[in-house]
Amino acid sequence: MRHIFVINPLAGKKGRTQRLEEQIRAAGARLGEQVEIYETKFQGDGERFVRKTCEEQTGNEKVRFYACGGDGALNEVANGAFGFANAEVGCVPLGTGNDYVRNYASPQAFLDIEAQLRGRAVDSDLIRYVQEEGEEVEEAGAFRYCVNMFNIGFDCNVVDQTSRAKNWPLVKGSFAYLLSVAIILIKKEGADLKVYYEDGTSFDGKLLLIAVANGCFCGGGVKGLPLSILDDGLLDVSLIKDVPRRTFIRLFPKYAKGVHLGDKRAQEIIDYRKCRKLTIAPNSGKMKLCVDGEILYTGKVSFEIVPRAMRFSVPAGVGAGPGPNKRL
């Protein structure tokens, strides 16, 4: 097994990259495992490096790539490794959200490099999506893959706002997210969309948000899709209607904890369902789409679950099941 740590040097706190590299080398020496380190140089470089390494790999030796960064870094590594039978994907969560690893019982263990090197790979689903038109796609009709979740509307706007707020003086960590929630609630930004489900039903009009998910969490621990399972071969889709601010503010604490589906108020305003594919299109112009924490602007997009498409490495001692609702 080759162990390659793909590090985003911009993720996490200042100086963390150097400490992480020291931890990686020390853990490899203690366990007698050969480790390799690659620092990404630009957005998309992680995907390029992983794919090139897989293409050059010879024989039957397995290679495990650890995405060291946020959910965006994990997305790059997963896209680079897709389709290569001997490639496994791991994650050392150093980003702002780190939402994918929260789907496991002990997300903190993903920071334990020795546990990572002794980890095991499990089959996990991916979401394949295709933009029929968009400014930030290499070519219309090109398939890409999402690891955790897509967000449109409120959640997406909060992620976009948080990316700016965390650069403001004295605004850090969870406070940046909570401040962004307040700002977007005041603006009451949603979306105006057409949503086509595989059973022939549809939604057309204004909504507060829609999430298309493989995992439960977004926004650094908000458990908006609590029924999601990483390997059930199904998408979880949550559509919240265009409701008054007061209604959503009252529901948000339960929404954040993932206990909202049992609330009568939620049942009246949320359409939550499982399916294998769907299509979403803006009613005018482009829509803002958040893909594993990264924002792009696009037209019509089709989504489809790809069962057990990724071999995901889980650290030794970590069990399955949703992790706690807290920040790493």
From TrEMBL:
PANTHER family: LIPID KINASE YEGS, SPHINGOSINE KINASE. The keyword Kinase applies. Its cofactor is Mg(2+). It holds the Pfam family YegS_C. Belongs to the diacylglycerol/lipid kinase family. This is DAGKc domain-containing protein. It comes from Anaerovorax odorimutans. Keywords: ATP-binding, Kinase, Lipid biosynthesis, Lipid metabolism, Nucleotide-binding, Phospholipid biosynthesis, Phospholipid metabolism, Transferase. Residues 1-133 form the DAGKc domain.
